[in-house]
């Protein structure tokens, strides 16, 4: 039941969730050594899966996590204006040596540099 | 099964990803805490998770906000957390903090995914 197109997967997931919000659960597994990300959404009756190894899908995946969690909590999207202080404690930052501290401010404004290289 | 608070969970999750660099898989599950599940949890832990009372008392209301259960497994280790809706409107609630920390962890550790293959496109441009 693997879907290969992200748009299709997203739509199928949202439909499934609307159909059975109490039973649907969302699982994702990541094999770091293989570089494989597998997403599965199921309500114990039907099953939808998506597999990828592309970094380009990462942003969409994070966005989907956000959307699904909002649905699960039955919450509306928060205002973009509300100030969310950098919630990651210092201990976490020191534990992630790979994360460049410069990268976090760059991600909030949409940088056009990456997109023009097509 | 270790039950942690939202930020401690993300820290542990980061450690799981760190450990999984050489072998093994990290899997994360998310689902809504439904009324029956909340009742079960309150019986087991003797304490109702925050936000749970509203759900249990109002089974028919549409605008009730549910807590969300998140679990992570790495080999034999299991951790879990409950993300609740905060009624204080101005301060960032559990959900915002969790999403922030969680997306940071993901971006940091899912680095073994393949980047876009540009070599073919570069060849096309040069023609």
UniProtKB/TrEMBL annotation, chain A:
It holds the Pfam family SRP9-21. It comes from the Eukaryota. InterPro entries: Signal_recog_particle_SRP9/14, SRP9-like, SRP9_dom. GO terms for cellular component: signal recognition particle, endoplasmic reticulum targeting. Residues 109-118 have a biased composition (Basic residues). Gene3D superfamilies: Signal recognition particle alu RNA binding heterodimer, srp9/1. This is SRP9 domain-containing protein.
From TrEMBL, chain B:
Keywords: Cytoplasm, Ribonucleoprotein, RNA-binding, Signal recognition particle. Pfam families: SRP14. InterPro entries: Signal_recog_particle_SRP14, Signal_recog_particle_SRP9/14. GO terms for molecular function: 7S RNA binding; endoplasmic reticulum signal peptide binding. One of its GO terms (biological process) is SRP-dependent cotranslational protein targeting to membrane. Coiled coil: none annotated. It is found in: Cytoplasm. It comes from the Eukaryota. One of its GO terms (cellular component) is signal recognition particle, endoplasmic reticulum targeting. Component of a fungal signal recognition particle (SRP) complex that consists of a 7SL RNA molecule (scR1) and at least six protein subunits: SRP72, SRP68, SRP54, SEC65, SRP21 and SRP14. Component of the signal recognition particle (SRP) complex, a ribonucleoprotein complex that mediates the cotranslational targeting of secretory and membrane proteins to the endoplasmic reticulum (ER). Belongs to the SRP14 family. This is Signal recognition particle subunit SRP14. It comes from Thamnidium elegans.
């Amino acid at each position: 039941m693997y879907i290969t197109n992200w748009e299709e997967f997203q739509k199928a997931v949202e439909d499934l969730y609307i159909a059975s919000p109490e039973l649907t659960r969302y699982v994702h597994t990541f094999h770091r050594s293989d570089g494989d990300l597998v997403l599965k959404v199921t309500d114990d009756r039907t099953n939808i899966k998506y597999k990828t190894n592309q970094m380009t899908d990462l942003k969409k995946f994070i966005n989907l996590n956000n959307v699904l969690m909002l649905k699960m909590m039955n919450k509306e999207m928060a205002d973009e204006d509300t100030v969310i202080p950098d919630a990651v404690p210092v201990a976490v930052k020191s534990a992630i040596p790979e994360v460049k501290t410069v990268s976090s401010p760059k991600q909030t404004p949409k940088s056009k540099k990456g997109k023009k290289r097509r | 099964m270790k039950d942690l608070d939202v930020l401690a969970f993300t820290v542990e999750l980061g450690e799981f990803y760190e450990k999984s660099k050489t072998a093994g898989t990290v899997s994360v599950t998310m689902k809504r805490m439904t009324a029956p599940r909340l009742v079960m949890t309150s019986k087991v832990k003797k304490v109702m998770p925050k936000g749970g009372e509203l759900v249990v008392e109002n089974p028919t209301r549409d605008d009730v906000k549910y807590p969300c259960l998140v679990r992570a497994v790495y080999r034999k280790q299991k951790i879990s957390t409950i993300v609740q809706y905060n009624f204080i409107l101005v301060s960032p609630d559990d959900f915002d903090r969790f999403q922030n920390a969680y997306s940071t962890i993901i971006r940091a550790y899912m680095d073994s995914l393949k980047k876009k293959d540009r070599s073919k496109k570069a060849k096309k441009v040069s023609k």
